[in-house]
Amino acid sequence: MMVDLLDYLYSSTANKVPFFKKIRLYSALRFIIRTVANNFIPVYFKLTKGNKKYSLKNYPEKSNGVIVSLTSFPKRINRLWIVIETILRQTLPPKKIILWLSADQFSDMKQLPASLLAQQERGLEIRIMPNDLRSHKKYYYALTEYPDHDIVLIDDDIFYRSTMIEDMRKYADVNPQCVIAQFGKTMLWNDLDKLKPYVSWPLVITETKPRDDIFFGTGGGVLINKRHLSGDALNKDLFIELAPTADDVWINAMCRLQGTKVVKTKYYSYHLPVLSPNDSTLFDVNESLNDITITAVNAHYVSNNAGVFDKK
Question: How many CB atoms lie within 10 A of CB 153?
């Protein structure tokens, strides 16, 4: 599949050779691959969308019971259909794909692009919810309405390879007690067992066994279940107070409170992005505020003089 090939090529540009990094060869290659992907993959999707195998409704018997959940906002909504296409074309299709939107940003379906509305005929569910829980919409409503299902959380700006759900399902079958993540960092602590700054944590590149020192990123693709989380996970007043823009910090904290470990899959990706004009992402905001949010959550959940993010 075209997405799989370009994702592989994009991820292969990891800065392996210092000289090539110095002359910015890798950056140039990533720019070229991003440009090719964002210009040619949408055309391919439009030409092939009529194929019945790319509809959840035509093959319900293939569903593995997983529900894919995501959210979005106005600056990305016009290109979101591309992300949805990558999920409709999974080798192991999900039971549902649910897009949760805020009524504060989208008062009704008429505000949504035709490309997205058309995908409802092939299995996409669009739910406009009152208020705005920001990025927390990604998991909050799905875990509330489907507490017994495995939920795959994704972002609204990434080309996801076709085997993503199938791979994570295999890991979950072996490790049902664990969160299955495609992206994560190894948390580092100082001599006082306090977390070092987020920016210093190294990426987890290879496959892992269950570990309690992995901080996973939901946007990279995560399979999670309500049983993995502390009872406070769906306390919206609390997560809006402590982690209003950092859903990843909150979800990781809820896993640590529950004693849930994380398995990182063998897959590694640079996350080939779906580009949107005038996009303003939450990534940079969360990068800069992660340490502040972790400190706030840590201070709230203290037991035996140790916070939830302190070294166990």
Answer: 26
Q: Which residues contact 87 (CB under 8 A, 6 or more apart)?
A: 68, 94, 97, 154, 160, 165
**pTM summary value:** 0.94
pLDDT 10s digits, 112-135: 999 999 999 999 999 999 989 999
First to last CA, the chain: 43
Query: How confident is the model over 200-235, as pLDDT tens digits?
Result: 999 999 999 999 999 999 999 999 999 999 999 999
